[in-house]
Design brief:
The complex is a heterodimer of chains A (235) and B (290). With 235 residues, chain A is α/β, with parallel strands linked by helices. Helix content of chain A is 39%, strand content 27%. In chain A, a hairpin with a 2-residue loop joins strand 4 and strand 5. The relative contact order of chain A is 0.19. The longest helix of chain B is centred in the N-terminal third of the chain and has 32 residues. The radius of gyration of chain B is 19 Å and the shape is globular. Classes of the chains: A alpha/beta (235), B mainly alpha (290). Chains A and B meet through helix 2 and helix 3 of A and helix 6 and helix 7 of B.
């Protein structure tokens, strides 16, 4: 469904991605592991059209999306939960959600359905729906960021380090929502530093180092191969 | 020396009326700055073009209100076109480039007005000529109407931004352009629309101001300058702050002109500007950053 092939991306003159190839099938949860600064976030930004690749192709459902206007991927069904969460701080929780709901072609009843669904999984967001996004705690902001992505009714969600800096209770809530999304048929490309979580929820894993994919395989193989984990992730 | 109470009251009314027209100009300016980081030095020229377009439309239709609508729509379209053609490529660049670009646009628009309408001033006929007694003065109702209309337009903008679907888009894109795009909001289109809205508010001020001060090809610079003082004093990109600052500055100028000549009273607003920059550079009406 989503396929990156030999993607090269630069920030100014620094070469960040050196030919990355990644594939995610429909409904599949795929992990993308690696240390800090190896290009995981850049890979997601390249998919979203927030940075333009200088070479290679990014295809979604057969269509080349590299170099599309940055608001187009969301319309195609690609949702993005960035590492910094990027809540609209001065918008209320409900308004944050509405940024994803007020698209052409979404009926009022479907909007309510999507909202109710998000509130059901994150009851705290319903309680705080009229509160400014910036007043939420870090964990609540992470839930809002994920709920906001769900408003797009996406086929795939790109999750960038959703558990970073969260306390264990929140981490298990994130784990839970990943399972819920997966059961709902949504594909996930999960960028993480949390190796145990990634191995638990993903069916396949890519490991990146210095802007290239070093290792790729089913999670089960990786679990059995502690040496690889140690070599690339240092854990 | 004692200033008679009736003069203070008259100047309060004057200050409020001028403040509302200024607020109409400044809120467009601050809206544009907030979302695009573009300091629009051509904003006063949009006021001027609005005034001339209104004058022409008034001559053709004979109706002030039709002329107001025509000017607002024409200049809104012009603003959106200017944004899409001249400024879109500069969004996200060094602010200096956009200052130069909008300054260039202001020169072009000014010379166009000179070519199209000539150097002499146009005065629009006010739609209502009634007056009421304010102490020793016959105070024109039109001035009061102007303030109310300006307040109405600003109020409508506020409601649109607060509750409208596209208002949420505008606020989201103002806060985080990148994330707004990732949520599927067509930010370039939003930018053009916001520029159009700002331009149309400037045009409305130009038409409303037409019967009071007349329309001249060089009037833009004064509006740009005053709107800038207001936007900086109120806090860059802060809509409510700009409106409060417009009223504050206009009142201060009005009161100052009781003591000194009106030309000198302008100095008072510069004093406010400098004091704001010294003691509260983020703006008077912005909550202190925590």
């Amino acid at each position: 469904m989503l396929a990156l092939e030999n993607v090269h991306t630069y920030y100014g003159k620094s070469h960040i991605l050196h030919g990355v190839s990644i594939e995610v099938g429909p409904g599949e949860v795929v992990g993308l592991l690696g240390r800090n600064g190896v290009g995981k976030s850049t890979t997601l930004k390249t998919i979203m059209g927030l940075v333009r690749p200088s070479g290679g192709s990014v295809r979604f459902e057969g269509r080349d999306i590299a170099g599309m206007a940055p608001h187009r991927p969301a319309h195609l069904g690609i949702a993005y939960v960035p590492e910094e969460r990027r809540i609209f701080r001065l918008l209320s929780v409900l308004e944050n959600l509405r940024t994803g709901l007020d698209r052409p072609g979404v009926s009022e009843s479907r909007k309510n359905e999507l909202l109710e669904n998000a509130y059901e999984h994150f009851p705290v967001l319903r309680d705080r729906r009229n509160q400014a996004g910036g007043t939420l705690s870090g964990g609540e902001q992470q839930m809002l960021a994920i709920a906001r992505a769900m408003m797009l009714d996406p086929k795939i969600i790109l999750l960038d380090e959703p558990t970073e800096g969260l306390m264990p209770r929140m981490v298990s809530q994130i784990r839970e929502i990943i399972h819920v999304l997966h059961r709902g048929g949504v594909a996930i490309l999960l960028v993480e530093q949390n190796v145990p979580l990634t191995l638990e929820v993903s069916s396949r894993v890519y490991i990146m180092e210095k802007g290239v994919v070093r290792h790729h395989g089913p999670t089960a193989d990786l679990r059995a191969n502690q040496a690889v984990i140690h070599q690339y992730l240092g854990v | 020396m004692a200033i008679p109470f009736d003069q203070i009251l008259i100047q309060t009314v004057n200050g409020l009326v001028n403040g509302m027209i200024l607020a109409l100009v400044a809120s467009g300016l601050t809206l544009i700055f907030g979302i695009m980081d573009i300091v629009n030095f051509a904003h006063g020229e949009l006021v001027m073009l609005g005034g001339f377009t209104g004058a022409t439309a008034l001559a053709v239709t004979g109706s002030f209100w039709l002329a107001l609508v025509a000017a607002v729509l024409t200049i809104a379209l012009l603003g959106a076109l200017l944004q899409a053609t001249a400024l879109r490529p500069l969004v996200g660049r060094d602010p200096l480039t956009t200052i130069l670009a909008t300054f260039g646009i202001s020169l072009v628009l000014q010379k166009y007005a000179l070519w199209q309408w000539g150097p002499s001033a146009r005065k629009l006929q006010e739609p209502i000529t009634g007056q009421f007694n304010l102490f020793y003065l016959e105070y024109p109702w039109y001035r009061v109407l102007t303030a109310l209309l300006a307040a109405g337009i600003i109020g409508a903008l506020y409601l649109f931004l607060r509750y409208g679907k596209y208002g949420i888009w505008i606020r989201a894109a103002t806060q985080d352009r990148i994330m707004a795009q990732a949520m599927g909001i067509p930010v370039p289109l939003v930018h053009a629309v916001v520029f159009g809205i700002g331009a149309s508010m400037a045009a409305a001020s130009g038409v409303l101001f037409g019967p009071l001060g007349g329309v001249t090809q060089t009037m833009g610079a004064d509006f740009t300058l005053r709107a800038f003082i207001v936007v900086v004093v109120g806090g860059m990109g802060n809509l409510g702050g700009s409106i409060l600052a417009s009223i504050l500055i206009s009142l201060i100028e009005a009161y100052a002109s009781l003591v000194v000549s009106p030309a000198q009273a302008v100095i008072a607003s510069f004093v406010v500007l400098i004091l704001t920059q010294l003691f509260r550079p983020t703006g008077l009406f912005v909550p202190t950053p925590k």
